[in-house]
Amino acid sequence: MSYLLALDAGTGSIRAVIFDLNGRQLAVGQAEWKHLSVDNVPGSMEFDLTTNWQLACQCIRRALDAARLSAADIQSVACCSMREGIVLYDRNGEAIWACANVDARASREVAELKEIHDYRFESEVYEVSGQTLALSAMPRLLWLAHHRPISTAKRQPSP
User: What is the pTM of this model?
Assistant: First the structure.
């Protein structure tokens, strides 16, 4: 018989949930994770990608064990994640920067965007995306360009 696995990477935890093909939940593996604050970067909340990957694998294993299934029994995997968490990779597929959706380091960039666009920009962004500037990716990417230019340079596409 075939089963489905959903991997849900939330703000405070990760879950692996196994369903049968009728949508009945069979098992769950869940683990809390923590975000890292960066010294001298107020409001920062970065991902610990190595630890988080290990937690995801543990959750999958727990769910499979609880359901008494093997990986071969899984027909399909679906993943979802927290709003606008960001992970940037270099050309070799190595992560160079990662932050959570609730990372609040870019307050200066939020103010800058509001001022540049006569304070109407946030309303326009909200109408289209449902996100305020404080939690959207745009100011965090600007922060990255202002404060970590080497990361910005590394993510440029190959010529």
Answer: 0.81
Q: CA-CA distance, 130 to 158, in Å (whole number)?
A: 33
| DSSP for 54-104, written as a single string | HHHHHHHHHHHHHHT--GGGEEEEEEEE-TT-EEEE-TTS-EEEEE-TT--
pLDDT in tens, 76-127: 999 998 778 899 988 899 998 999 888 999 999 999 998 888 778 888 889 9
- Please say whether the beta carbons of 32 and 13 come within 8 A: yes
CB atoms < 10 A from the CB of 58, how many?
Answer: 15
Question: Smallest Cα–Cα separation from 31: which of 2, 5, 3, 61?
Answer: 61
Secondary element (H or E) of residue 46: none
